[in-house]
Amino acid sequence: MRITTRGQLAVSAMTDLALRQQMRPVALSTISARQGTSLSYLEQLFSALRRAGLVDSTRGPGGGYTLARRADQVSVADIILAVENLKGDDTQSLAQGQAAQMRAMTGELWITFNSRVMDYLQSVTLAELVTQELARGVVVESGEPAPQQRARAVPSTKPKPRLAGLGVPNSVFALGSMPLMQRR
Q: What is the mean pLDDT of the chain?
């Protein structure tokens, strides 16, 4: 069994998501900033996690990702298997004769090893990782910043200066229509 950086990043990002999803969906850009991971790489990971049914996505303003199941129902093994291209047999890259000899000599060792690693990863839940992070003192913001909203025009109560009588144009259009001599 080979667990790559891809699997490690997926577990870390899912822990981040589980810590912060209480208020609203979490945008990948915020996870990317906190984890120091490229946004496009996280998009690939979360696409695989969504296909595996571990996360749900929400589109549009205020969109992002949430867990599809409770954190205590998601194991580290679920996350790893969703993003890694694990094969049941790591001897597939060897020549057929070498693979057969290796299986005959130490096959039981590696089968047992892989089984124990998988059992351990299945025993650790996302909820446990969240608890560990909180115990370490990780600060969880009260929520992510609200999406930017368009500012509404508020009528000004301050009176506009009257410049028309002073020969001062009130727009660039008025300035352009003034004779050149009068502009100076």
A: 78
